[in-house]
Amino acid sequence: MMRTNRLPSSLFGIALALFAMLLPGISRGADSPGRIAPPKLVLFMVVDGFPQEQLVKYYDQLGEGGLKRLLDQGAWYGNNHYSHATTYTGVGHATLLTCAHPYKHGVIGNDWIDKKTGQRLYSTEDKRHKYLDEETPEHSGTSPYNIKVTTVGDELIYANGKSKVIAISGKDRSAIGLAGRNGIAYMHSTLTGRFITSDYYMEAYPAWWQAFYADKPQDKYFGRQWTLLREEAAYERSAPDGRPWSTDRKGLGTKFPHPVGGSAEKPDKTYYDVMMWTPYGDQLTLDFVKAAIEGEKLGANPAGVPDILAISWTSHDYVNHLFGPESRQSHDHLLRLDRVFAELFDYVDQKIGLDDVLITLSADHGFMNIPEYAATRRLDAGRIDPEAMIAAVNEALSKRFGEGRYVTAWWNPTLYVDYALIEARQLDRVAVENAAQAFLRDYPGVEAVYTRTQLEEGRVPDTKMSKQVILAWHQQISGDIVVMNKPNWYLFAKPKTYASTHGSPWSYDTNVPLVMHGAKWVKAGKYGDSEVVDLGRTIAYILDVRPPNGCEGRVLAEALR
Question: Angle, nearest 10°, between helix axes 315-323 and 280-295?
Fold first, then answer.
């Protein structure tokens, strides 16, 4: 009789079950073999201009249902960074759900010079498309044409053809960057106060949108004032208001209370603009988000068909620009935003159930302290005027190579060289670039300078900053001389436009939150190092879809069930 090595059927079943438990990525209790059921909704949250340090700085003053819920019950990475040097809004939002760096996704700034036309090009402008039911100003964001790669949402829609991807923001470049090519972007209009879209996404607004705006809900916050949420003593960790370096823009003033409508006498475009620079911009966003969840029936698909709702909360960026991240205004705004989050999470829990929702939180960039404030802390700090820098470098080049406007323009953070002039004069391009680089290296507030030839040929110092610049620089699109400012030095167009800004490779700009909340998929706890590109890659993994085609992030497996 032939012997067999078969186990009894009961033991075989036990052995098979044990083997399955040991295999990575195999989970029991799923709605299909080998994986945990995906969330019904991914609530992808971005706070514009939100440095990591602010996430935890006022932890003891947070409510239980908002940011504290994410920190206590979610997985968060305290050392999460952008890896590119150009920490601007358009760049960050294009990076978040493509999980690609700028040299791949092609959004190198909020604006740049188009090589073909020689004119300014806004990161999400597309002259082929117009806003629906509204005037389209020049350089408005109307499509994702300039984003060269796919997003997580694009891949999710490709995978099943049924998921919805909705992105909502106070800024067009933010909403469009998150929506990708196949989602729908809604962005706040300063002309009407509505969240609008373009004919790239649809031919007419849906019925729920028309019903929502029938009674002009955007007008209900007119006449209100922004006052402190808590007693004076609660703000001792933040700088007092009314400081001489705060920026009095939009009619808001530099001290509490701030009129939500600025100088507007009625609900008009002045009011619609100014309110987004106050906490009421978040409330306006929340109102529309609720309408979109209900109108689009997000999270109500058949099992295994997730939706994505991406929200970029704009007002925190504006508050930090006007008053600085160290300010009482920024502190108070964060406490108010925390309450908005708590209200949103409760609403989502009622409509969908938080147990079936994956919530993530990050930011498009951090923020520097106001230079004048940094100087009071005995730091080397100041402001660079790009126009003055252009004039100075052209004067230096003219003395060496003959009178001429060799550098023609500056867009964050690059100078554009007139190579046609150099060729016409039969000058050596490399010699001109090197001369400009040598001059700028000694310019006040400048840390490092990189030329086009250096970057094209890969001849840069082996430093972290060089790697950050390489990841941010696109050979066909970017400018010609990259200028990196010193820490605590303000480098932005019109240096007195804002009190504070961002855009540098320094950690106060690169270190932003990365939080994931959802007990079915995520293990709660504080984790260490990560890159922003890891978040989108991890979401794609949880959704069981292929990563976006330019993705360079890793799966944050240590934080997953």
Answer: 170
Q: Which of 532, 520, 515, 543 is nearest to 153 (CA)?
A: 543
Q: Which residue has the tokens 């007990």?
A: 519
CA distance 40 to 436: 55
Distance between CA atoms of residues 430 and 487, nearest Å? 28
Kindly report the average pLDDT of the chain as a whole number.
93
- Cα within 13 Å of Cα(188), Cβ side: 30
Sheet with 525-531, edge to edge strand ranges: 195-196, 184-188, 165-169, 307-313, 41-47, 357-362, 515-517, 75-81, 525-531
Q: Please check the confidence at residue 7 and state whether its pLDDT lies above 70.
A: no
**Res 108 pLDDT > 50:** yes
Residue with tokens 């604006």: 111
Instruction: Supply the DSSP string of 195-260, one letter for each residue.
Output: EE-BTTT-SS--HHHHHHTTT-GGGTTTT-EE--SS-GGGGTTSB-S--TTS---TT--SSSSEET
Q: Provide the annotated active-site residues.
A: 89
CA angle centred on 335, ends 332 and 339, rounded to 5°:
140
Please say whether the beta carbons of 261 and 271 come within 8 A: yes
On whether the CB atoms of residues 79 and 515 are closer than 8 A, the answer is: no
Please give the average per-residue pLDDT across 363-377, as a whole number.
98
Q: Are 505 and 465 in contact (CB under 8 A)?
A: yes
| CATH topology classification for 41-370+507-559 | Alkaline Phosphatase, subunit A (3.40.720)
Nearest partner of 147 among 192, 92, 194, judged by Cα = 92
Question: What residues contact 238, with CB distance under 8 A and at least 6 apart?
Answer: 326, 327, 328, 330, 331
Which one-letter DSSP state was computed for residue 352? T
Structure tokens, 145: 């044409």
Q: Does the CA dihedral 514-86-107-493 come out positive or negative?
A: positive
* 286 CB-near residues (< 8 Å, 6+ apart): 340, 343, 344
Three-state DSSP state, 327? strand
Query: In this model, does residue 527 exceed pLDDT 90?
Result: yes
Confidence class for position 32, pLDDT limits 50, 70, 90:
low
* CA distance from start to end of the chain: 48
CA distances from 130 to 120, 154, 193, 197, 202 (A): 18, 22, 17, 9, 11
Q: Say how many C-beta atoms besides its own lie within 10 A of residue 522's C-beta.
A: 23
| Options 3.30.1360.150, 3.40.190.10, 1.10.1370.30, 3.40.1080.10; CATH of 382-491 | 3.30.1360.150
What are the sequence ranges of the domains in the chain? 41-370+507-559, 382-491
Q: Six-digit token pair at 340?
A: 């908005």
Q: How many angstroms from the chain centroid is the CA of residue 100?
A: 13
Task: Supply 542's token pair.
Answer: 């949880």
Q: Give, as one character, the DSSP assignment of residue 132.
A: T
